[in-house]
Design goal:
D-Maltodextrin-Binding Protein, domain 2, 10 strands, 275 residues, 41% helix, 2 domains
């Protein structure tokens, strides 16, 4: 099924639901705008989203499909969850924050900036060990981390990035952190860690499955999943901004993201479904 097809299927399911949610409300506004030339349509064409760096390979497909289905353009800013939360707290004009964990969306709530008292879980992340296909370390496995030839391992900063925190936890669980710490190439976020490994600036990368699942990373490298018992679950949460003028639209997009048709297709992009 094409990316657009599963988006449209999600919307068909929403229209058949007995309960009118934020998605239906907003779609009715769009329809009204088309019929009557209402300025509502022009005012509600864009949705500003702050998205965790692991979503960088995922969002383009969602942006394209969602805009084709609704006419709404998703304007996305990427960064570490910590950095994005700080920007929001400092006044960055966002409508929706898609974090890579619970902690940073909760900080936005604690600052009184979220529309609601609890974040909404929308996906589950996974950590992998990745290396270029032309690496002499191939074929890689988790044991490759102890290979004496390894001099550089890309990892996101555990102080700012949930995936970095997961990677550090995995290395500590394996009793390898102290041994490999001199070889860690620390990136600001998980997307940058993936770039370090892809460019050859690091021999290995502890990166997100979202990056490893992208076509380019599959073409130039291979990966193995880090066993999930080595790190805390990467449960990804979102919050809608309380002061947003587009709260209905932000909730509508989040509702769509949680529909079964969309959730079932997250796996092809390296994310796990909520349930």
């Amino acid at each position: 099924m094409s990316q657009l097809s599963w988006v449209l299927l999600a919307y068909r399911k929403q229209w058949s639901a007995p309960k009118l949610g934020a998605t239906l409300v907003y779609l009715s506004l769009i329809f009204y705008g088309f019929l009557h030339g209402s300025p509502v349509l022009a005012q509600q064409k864009e949705l500003r989203i702050a998205a965790a760096a692991d979503l960088q390979p995922v969002m383009p497909a969602l942006q394209e499909a969602y805009q084709k289905a609704t006419g709404i353009k998703l304007v996305v800013s990427f960064g570490s969850s910590s950095m994005l939360a700080e920007q929001i707290v400092n006044g960055a004009p966002m409508d929706l924050f898609l974090g890579a964990d619970f902690t940073y969306p909760e900080k936005v709530i604690a600052a009184g900036l979220a529309d609601g008292k609890t974040p909404t879980r929308y996906a589950k992340g996974a950590l992998v060990l990745w290396a270029r296909k032309d690496s002499p370390l191939q074929p890689i496995s988790m044991e490759t981390l102890t290979d004496p030839r390894v001099q550089s391992i890309a990892i996101a900063n555990e102080l700012h990035a949930p995936y970095g925190r997961a990677a550090a936890a995995a290395l500590r669980k394996l009793n390898l952190y102290d041994k490999v710490s001199p070889h860690l190439v620390v990136a600001e976020n998980i997307a940058q860690a993936a770039q370090f490994a892809e460019s050859g600036n690091a021999q290995l990368g502890l990166i997100s499955l979202t990056a490893a699942s992208s076509q380019h990373f599959q073409d130039v490298g291979t990966f193995v999943r880090v066993p999930t018992n080595l790190y805390p679950e990467i449960l990804q949460y979102a919050v809608v901004m309380a002061k947003s003028e587009r709260k209905a639209e932000a909730h509508a997009f989040l509702d769509w993201l949680l529909t079964s048709s969309v959730q079932e297709n997250l796996g092809k992009h390296g994310l796990g479904a909520v349930k």
